[in-house]
Design brief:
- The chain is of the alpha/beta class.
- It is built from six helices and ten strands.
- It has a five-stranded antiparallel β-sheet with strand order 5-4-1-2-10, with helices on one face. Strands 6-7-8-3-9 form a five-stranded parallel β-sheet, with helices on both faces.
- A hairpin with a 2-residue loop joins strand 4 and strand 5.
- It is globular.
């Protein structure tokens, strides 16, 4: 039986001197499953995604992504595991300014298991599928919607087992937010990736068969 895209066990985290902490006894996602993590702003949703991605260190417990214990790795080994197994979509996209759409996707392929000779074709195919016909276009000259498409392509480039989307619609109006979520979910389904998406927008709940609240995982004050 294949390892699940995400398995969290007895995870604990606290900021030094803060009056709150996160405690996640068990949380897992099955292959291809989409889950929405909800809760008010500043309640620790982003912190949990950062722990999953290995961008923060937990004080206890483990995070496994597709059978690899991300929380036990350090340095370059953690970066490589993240690059191969996790795709990330940020609210502000975090694209490489001054670079083309293709170059942004190629950067994500540096850690992939795909042979280097196939990176260009993979980037162009993904961008084309997601509505970016010119892979050489400078991302700074693209519309907000097009930039998000590049961000989604980058997140899926290495065929990750898990995609983390942190408030991906927070800066968009309702119409564009709906289109963005259509794009993210359809792209994840096409690649068979599990999706963990955070949001404080209650309108997104109907899109997900599974919703998890951050509140039971918070001990003490707010983040």
């Amino acid at each position: 039986m294949a390892d699940p895209p995400l398995r969290i066990t007895d995870l604990a985290f606290a900021f030094p001197g803060a009056d709150w902490s996160l405690s996640v006894p068990v949380l897992s996602l099955a292959a291809g499953e989409h889950a929405l993590l909800v809760g008010g702003s500043g309640r620790g949703k982003s912190t949990l995604l950062q722990l999953v991605a290995g961008l923060r260190d937990a004080s206890a417990g483990s995070v496994e992504v597709a059978g690899v214990r991300i929380s036990a790795l350090r340095g370059a080994a953690r970066d490589e595991a993240r690059g191969r197994r996790i795709g990330m979509i940020f609210q502000t996209f975090n694209l490489l300014h001054g670079f083309s759409a293709a170059e942004n996707v190629l950067a994500a392929l540096m850690f992939s298991e795909l042979p280097a000779a196939e990176h260009g074709a993979r980037a162009e195919a993904l961008l084309g599928r997601l509505g970016i016909p010119d892979p050489d276009a400078d991302v700074d000259r693209l519309s907000v919607g097009q930039q998000q498409r590049v961000a989604v392509a980058r997140a899926l480039a290495a065929r990750p087992a898990l995609v983390l989307a942190d408030e991906p619609t927070a800066s968009l109006d309702p119409a564009n937010a709906a289109a963005a979520m259509d794009l993210i979910q359809e792209a994840c389904r096409a690649d068979g990736a599990a999706l963990l998406c955070t949001s404080h927008d209650p309108s997104l709940r109907s899109r997900f068969a599974r919703t998890e609240s951050i509140d039971p995982f918070i001990k003490g004050g707010t983040s």
